[in-house]
C-alpha cells in the first residue's frame, strides 16, 4: 500500500511533497487508478468523424493504454472497449468506415452500437450470446 501524505489546508503551513511521491512506483500506480483513470480526458474533436465512423484510440497512451473505440452511428458518437469479448484481440486498429466490427482473431462481429452480432460456428449454441458478449460501453461527454 502506498504511503499516505497529509496536506495542510492552511496554505501558510503547507509543504511541498517529498521526493518519494515522485519516485515510488506504488504511488504512481495508485495515482493512475485513483486520479487519471476515472477522470475526464479529451480524446478528439467531433470533426474527426467527417471521414470515418470508427476511431480506435488508446486512453492516455503511454500511461494507462486502455484500447477504446469511438463509433459514430446515426450521427451519435459513443465509446466502447476495443477488445473482443472472446479472446481479447483488438477489434479495430485504424480509423475506418464500416457497418460492422469484426475481430480478426476468430471473426466475431459486433454492431455499431457495440452489441454482439455473430460468430461462425456458434449459430446453434444455447444461451448464446449474452450481454457479456457485447463490447463494454464507456461513458463520454459530448
UniProtKB/TrEMBL annotation:
InterPro entries for this protein: Rieske_2Fe-2S (IPR017941), Rieske_2Fe-2S_sf (IPR036922), Rng_hydr_dOase-A (IPR001663)
Q: Does the keyword ATP-binding apply?
A: no
PROSITE patterns according to UniProt: RIESKE
Q: Which organism is it from?
A: marine metagenome
Per its record, what are the GO molecular function terms? 2 iron, 2 sulfur cluster binding; metal ion binding; oxidoreductase activity
Q: Which Pfam families match?
A: Rieske
What name is this protein filed under?
Rieske domain-containing protein
Rieske domain residues? 40-134
Keywords for the protein's UniProt record, in alphabetical order: 2Fe-2S, Iron, Iron-sulfur, Metal-binding, Oxidoreductase
Amino acid at each position: 500500500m502506498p504511503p499516505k501524505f497529509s496536506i495542510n489546508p492552511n496554505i501558510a503551513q503547507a509543504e511541498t511533497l517529498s521526493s518519494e511521491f515522485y519516485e515510488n512506483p506504488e504511488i504512481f500506480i495508485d495515482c493512475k487508478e485513483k486520479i487519471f483513470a476515472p477522470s475526464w480526458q479529451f480524446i478528439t474533436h467531433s470533426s474527426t468523424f467527417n471521414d470515418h465512423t470508427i476511431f480506435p484510440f488508446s486512453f492516455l497512451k503511454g500511461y494507462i493504454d486502455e484500447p477504446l473505440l469511438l463509433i459514430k452511428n446515426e450521427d451519435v458518437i459513443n465509446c466502447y472497449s476495443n477488445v473482443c469479448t472472446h479472446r481479447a484481440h483488438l477489434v479495430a486498429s485504424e480509423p475506418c468506415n464500416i457497418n460492422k466490427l469484426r475481430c480478426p482473431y476468430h471473426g466475431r462481429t459486433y454492431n455499431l452500437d457495440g452489441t454482439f452480432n455473430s460468430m461462425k460456428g456458434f449459430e446453434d449454441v444455447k444461451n448464446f450470446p449474452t450481454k457479456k458478449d457485447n463490447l463494454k460501453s464507456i461513458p463520454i461527454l459530448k
